[in-house]
Design goal:
CATH class of the largest domain: Mainly Beta
Number of helices: 2
Structural class: mainly beta
Shape: globular
Radius of gyration: 17 Å
Distance between the termini: 34 Å
């Protein structure tokens, strides 16, 4: 079991006996792990349910989950990306290309961002440490693609990757 899985298991275990209230006043389920970003927070329950809540007066961010999809548009118009969580089931390194596009990247597209996804179960979680609490603004749209190369987009194997994006 890797360190992330151990920490997540401990977090789920330690949350099971207590319940709490977030500073926004929203109830936090007793079986939840809480992830915060700026004034927003997400809860993930032991059953896998995801809920995103914003601070009073704020606007809730949107969640886009892409299962076994090699490329696509997270949002087809201007938006701000706050976090991304992706995994790679392939035996080779892959790169998560994040682009300022309204549609999936085509072959040869140079990415705006391209963090590496390590092989065979490798996972990358990009949050405020990478995007800052302000996120990264994309003027055209937010598109992604899993690539076999870092510098330009070369489509990876479909079905080998899953991603979840938090954007507004």
């Amino acid at each position: 079991m890797n360190k992330f899985a151990i920490l997540l298991s401990l977090a789920l275990f330690s949350c099971a006996a207590t319940s709490a209230t977030h500073r926004t006043g929203a109830a936090i389920p007793s079986d939840a792990v809480v992830i915060t970003q700026g004034g927003n927070f997400a809860t993930v329950t032991a059953g896998g349910a995801l809920s995103v809540t914003s601070s009073p007066g704020g606007t809730s961010p949107s969640v886009s989950t892409q299962i076994a999809t090699v490329s696509g548009a997270v949002k087809a118009s201007a938006a701000t990306l706050y976090s991304a969580q992706c995994n790679n089931r392939n035996a080779a390194n892959r790169w998560l290309h994040i682009d300022n596009l309204a549609a999936a990247p085509g072959g040869g597209t140079v990415p705006t961002l391209a963090p590496i996804l390590e092989p065979a179960g490798g996972m990358v979680i990009l949050g405020t440490d990478f995007f800052t609490t302000s996120g990264v603004a994309f003027s055209v749209g937010i598109a992604f693609g899993h690539s076999t190369t870092s510098g330009t987009y070369t489509a990876a194997t479909a079905g080998d990757h899953d991603c979840t994006f938090l954007f507004q």
